């Protein structure tokens, strides 16, 4: 299945952090990737993201303004499982 690609816009890129806004059209994906840094995600939209992981699919309900953090090494493909655009801001800590 071919999906549209999520659109990353780097807002800040400094020695200690990188801040990226991610915009997902309905059904859009990041593609498989492995996080090289610890990171924090701040959803700007409420909805559910589908995570394809090495151990299977996970549905992740998110609420606008409610942040979460993950450690380096997370591997997944993030897919917008909503009928509306989904946006989050990702802060990577170097």
SSE order and pairing:
Layout: E1 7-13, E2 17-24, E3 33-34, E4 38-43, E5 47-53, E6 56-62, E7 68-70, E8 75-80, E9 86-93
Antiparallel strand pairs: 1-2, 2-9, 3-8, 4-7, 4-9, 5-6, 5-8
Any overview of this molecule?
The chain has strands at 7-13, 17-24, 33-34, 38-43, 47-53, 56-62, 68-70, 75-80, 86-93. It is mainly β and 94 residues long. The protein has one domain (7-93): Jelly Rolls. The chain has a five-stranded antiparallel β-sheet, with no helix packed on it. A hairpin with a 2-residue loop joins β5 (47-53) and β6 (56-62). It is globular. The termini are far apart. The model has no long low-confidence stretch (mean pLDDT 97).
Descriptive labels:
single chain, 94 residues, Jelly Rolls, four-stranded antiparallel β-sheet
- State the CATH superfamily name: Jelly Rolls
Distance between the termini: 34 Å
Which regions are unreliable across 5 or more consecutive residues at pLDDT < 50? none
What would you call the shape? globular
CATH architecture label name: Sandwich
Largest sheet: 5 strands, antiparallel
- What's the helix-strand series? EEEEEEEEE
Helix content: under 10%
Strand content: over 45%
Strand order of the largest sheet: 1-2-9-4-7
In the CATH hierarchy, what is the class?
Mainly Beta
Radius of gyration, whole Å: 13 Å
Enumerate how many helices there are, as a single number. 0
Q: Tell me how many strands there are.
A: 9
Brief write-up:
This protein has 94 residues and is mainly beta. It has strands at 7-13, 17-24, 33-34, 38-43, 47-53, 56-62, 68-70, 75-80, 86-93.
């Amino acid at each position: 299945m071919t999906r549209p690609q999520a659109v990353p816009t780097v807002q800040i890129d400094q020695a200690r952090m990188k801040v990226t806004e991610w915009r997902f059209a309905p059904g859009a994906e990041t593609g498989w990737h492995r996080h090289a840094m610890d990171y924090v995600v701040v959803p700007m939209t409420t909805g559910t993201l589908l995570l394809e992981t090495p151990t299977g699919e996970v549905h992740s309900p998110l609420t606008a303004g409610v942040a979460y953090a993950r450690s380096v090494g997370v591997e997944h493909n993030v897919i917008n499982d909503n009928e509306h655009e989904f946006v989050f801001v990702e802060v990577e800590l170097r």
